[in-house]
Amino acid sequence: MTINVQSINFTADGKLIEFAKKKIEKLEQFYDNILNAEVVFKVENASDRVNKFAEIILRIVGDDVVVKKTCKTFEEAIDLNVRAAERILKKHKENIK
């Protein structure tokens, strides 16, 4: 699975990119047919501290799984996105059977 990372309005740190890739690679345990993944990081212009936006798009056979979260940190947003994607992939796998 290839993982593409894109950061908008800032330059992503290497640690953040590695963290995201490591978390997303674990999703292959739950669903084998993930073709590729795209991660988009964005700092939104919000006056509050919750302005870190992360989106994960998983391309799977026959469909796309898209999860989006806005949190205080990118790591928290990725963590929540991965958990949501995990639930979606498990449901999708059950529906196929």
What tags apply to this protein structure?
four-stranded mixed β-sheet, 36% helix, Double Stranded RNA Binding Domain, alpha+beta, 97 residues, 36% strand
Quick recap:
By secondary structure, the protein is an alpha+beta fold.
Instruction: Bin the strand percentage.
Output: 35-45%
CATH architecture group name = 2-Layer Sandwich
Low-confidence stretches are none
Beta-strand segment tally: 4
- Helical/strand content category: alpha+beta
Mass-distribution shape:
elongated
CATH topological fold name? Double Stranded RNA Binding Domain
Round the Cα radius of gyration to an integer and report it.
14 Å
Mean pLDDT across residues: 92
CATH H-tier superfamily = Ribosome hibernation promotion factor-like
Helix content: 25-40%
Number of helices: 2
Structural overview:
The chain has a single domain, classed as Ribosome hibernation promotion factor-like (Double Stranded RNA Binding Domain), CATH 3.30.160. The model has no long low-confidence stretch (mean pLDDT 92). The chain starts with a strand and ends with a helix. It has helices at residues 14-25, 74-96; strands spanning 2-8, 34-43, 52-60, 63-71. The chain is α+β, with helices and mostly antiparallel strands and 97 residues long. 19% of the residues are buried. Helices cover 36% and strands 36% of the residues. The protein contains 2 helices and 4 strands.
